[in-house]
Specification:
The protein is of the alpha+beta class. The chain is 44% helix and 15% strand. It has helices at residues 5-8, 18-22, 32-71, 74-79, 87-90, 184-196, 201-204, 214-218, 227-261, and strands spanning 82-86, 92-95, 113-115, 126-127, 143-145, 149-153, 161-164, 168-170, 174-178, 221-225. A hairpin with a 7-residue loop joins strand 6 (149-153) and strand 7 (161-164).
Amino acid sequence: NNGFAQYVTKSTHQNISLKTIKNIELKDLPTLEQQAKVVNYIESINNFSNNKKIEILNLNKFKDNMLIETFDNEIMSKNEEFTISKLKEVSKINIGRTPKNPDLFYTTESNYFFAGLKQLPVDSNIINSTNICVHESELKQSIFVKPDSLILTVYGDVGNLYLNNTNLCISQALVSFQDNLVDTKYLYYYIQYLKANKTLEKYTAGSQSQNMSKKDIANFDIKVYNNEIQKKIVKYFSMLDKYININIEQLNQYKILQKETI
């Protein structure tokens, strides 16, 4: 209820003393029996949330293992025809540029959304809109990305991948994949595979990481199966993602419940 706000507000916070804690006024204390019920209720919510976090973590590990097993599968490679291409051969790849004119940047009079790192979704890998639009005159200075495309982070938290469903302009921290010659979701899962099998590790390993360039990305290999196999792979991992997202939504609902309860 913000009773400790002055002690936890970032740079302006005060130290809290033992005397202050002892003099905190407690009003309308419930009975011990009621207190026990409240504690048990809050603990049950916390336990569910913690168990759900572990479940989501394990599901994501399972997904990574299945991505590796699917695309490294020697038996499938022997039984199904495929080609090895470079990413630049199956997709148009571009690094974004931030529009230069600030007066035309934060505008609502446009159908073109803008995305930098701060505009990317937090609990989703799908971009349907952002909170910033760009005036059409700025499109030449930015990179225009059409729907049915992919967005990859190359700065900050490198290697995060998003499905884009809207008209979008992107900053230099992002790379786009569009006009794809393979199924867009197949490409989506294949790039996730590159992260799962540690191909992207040197770009994502904390303080020792390297910047990921357009040239680096363009020259990654991709195993291309026929359309039927691509759709089967997409169907399987889409179902797995749907189950993971259901668990994430359940966790978010319990986070809301935790805040309301406390």
